[in-house]
LysR family transcriptional regulator
Amino acid sequence: MSPTHSPITGRQPLKPTMPMGTRIDLNLLQVLQILLEECSVTRAASRLHLSQSAVSKSLSRLRAMFDDPLFIRERHGLRPTPRAQALRGELAELLSRLESLSAPPTFAPATSQRRFQMAVLESAWSTLMPSCTHALTSALPHGSFEISRWQADCLSLMEKGQLDIGLAGHDHSADTPGEPPTLPEGFHSQILWRDDHVMLVRRGHPVLNRTTPLTLDEFAALDHVQATCEGRSRWSLDERLEHHGTPRRISVLVPDFRDALSIVAHSELVFCAPRSFANASSVLHGLAICELPVRLPALSYRLIWHASHEQDPGHRWLRQSLITHIRNTHGADAAVADH
């Protein structure tokens, strides 16, 4: 397009008559637009919900702004001057564009092609992702999801805008058993559900033949397989056992939960995991669930997102979709408190 034409209308722009540096009051332009449509101060005041005096004062300011009378009084109203007539077309389009820019953003999942990036804690995969992924992709048929494993650097990725949302798990401390750790400033979260820990063993494991519960010492002496989580090999369970003076025996350390399940299914080793993960995995891998001899602080699963996404309609849809699905899946266990 030629630089001598308006980028909005494509027409040759009107030469300004107002002094350089003059600030344009958009409210005055709206008054001018209504006056051009009504050619009457009385009718314009009624449409604008202003007094006739206020509209007259605005017209005086417009005349000074454009250095033109703009309207000539006649018996039956106002007649626009050539200058005002020349402004009519561009003014209507300009105000329409400004109204569109200031309108609240919307999100239509049925037609959106947006790509969401999510990170999910490994122990939540079996519990949540198979059914949740189906629900999300059905509701967003033209969009897509990139789902990775929750890692220690995910908060940094969110801060940089490289990750939309995370589903993380956090052990509650013994001092604050009802609350997960506080997030850094600039992040929001919502607890989805609370969980506790159990022990997974293969079906036919000798511990299943016991007539009495395991003691703490007997539990610690078992051969345990441990999976790293967020790069950590020590869990709150280990801290609690060491506090009691009975550290457990870690015979095998593996990089993820799936490897731990495979080992347990084919050995005498045992694996401690969140109850929701154990419930989802035990049938698939032919494992049995045993209660722990020691009570641990709760584990919370929660959504985490950066404050920059708080008002984004698409992000709000994603959060609400996840929360709704999890409430339907976990029922009363799904929490609704914001943090």
Observations:
- The longest strand covers residues 187-195.
- Residues 115-195+299-333 form a domain with the D-Maltodextrin-Binding Protein; domain 2 fold (CATH 3.40.190.10).
- The chain has three domains: 26-101, 115-195+299-333, 197-290.
